[in-house]
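Re: Re: ligand-bound prediction request (bumping)

Still looking for help on this. To restate: I need the protein modeled with manganese (II) ion bound, output as structure tokens. Inputs repeated here so nobody has to scroll up.
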Amino acid sequence: MNMDLKSSATPLLLAGPCSVESEEQILATAQALAKIPEVKMLRGGIWKPRTRPDAFEGRGEEALAWFREAKLQTGLPTITEVATPNHVELALKYDVDALWIGARTVVNPFSVQQLADALKGVDVPVFIKNPVSPDLNLWLGAFERFQKAGLTQLAAIHRGFAYYKETPYRNFPMWEIPIELTRRLNVPMITDVSHICGNRELLLPTAQKALDLATDGLMIECHISPDEALTDARQQITPEALRQLLASLVFRAKQSGSVEHDLAGWRSEIDDIDEELLQLLARRMEVSAQIGEYKKRNNVTVVQMDRWKQVLADLMATGEELGLSPILINKVFEAIHQASIERQSRIMEK
Ligand code: PEP
Ligand code: MN
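Reply:
Sorry for the wait, this slipped through. Here it is.
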């Protein structure tokens, strides 16, 4: 398998059912998917991590034989989820080509370590999903465990995060987290739009957003008859619907020479603006420190809540006039205000 996805012009597409349910289901799904040229890999769950114990938990070893048959009939390499060393052993025994580590497993460093130990010396591609919780270090830690075990073909799968509020998504994307992971680690990033969305309606805009953010691949759950699927029925689509989805997506060049050239001018403008922002921030902190000295001399508290509320309200109003997102204004000025308070508190303590 070629894992050099970063330089590949088209994103890697992994498609297939949430679960391998029967021989007929996986063969029919795989055959239909193999007719779509963009599909490069067949996914299928053999062991399913379910929230409640009486739910369908996958067909286990017998499904591995069907999965291998699907690969032989279509030539598509296969990928499945492993959560225990026993899963690893069986998946490799039945010639599964690549493995993914599920979101519920990545939250547990003991499990990740057991899997890394089980894979020592086996250079199989391993795709690591983000943990259910929005915890970048936990995700990074999983990569480090596999790297230490000598695995070199590693990729990340962004499948969204559990969120404290209701959102239209099953798992809130929090795009900044996968972006930060790829800034820190040079690994391909695959976007699992099916588990982010949880429904069919959001798949198109979410996949487009992933492409716009330069994802290296998409994972999309496909089932020959999605409404009858034993798991994740609401988010699975038919191979025909996948074909239509792909036709509606705009694939953008990631880094062609001419695009690089066109972007260079804007990038240097952005660099200049960032530099100016830094200079302004430094000046603002300086003034804030002078205020801190004054407050100390005159015994005035650091936090002046009424003043801060008024300042923030004025900034939000101006921001709105400028067409800036209220979330952005809030985040930026909360952070600046917090830094000012910390600076002034240090002055008070002197
Ligand atoms: C899956 O891909 O079917 C799955 C269970 O994913 P996750 O671990 O992201 O929930
Ligand atoms: Mn699923």
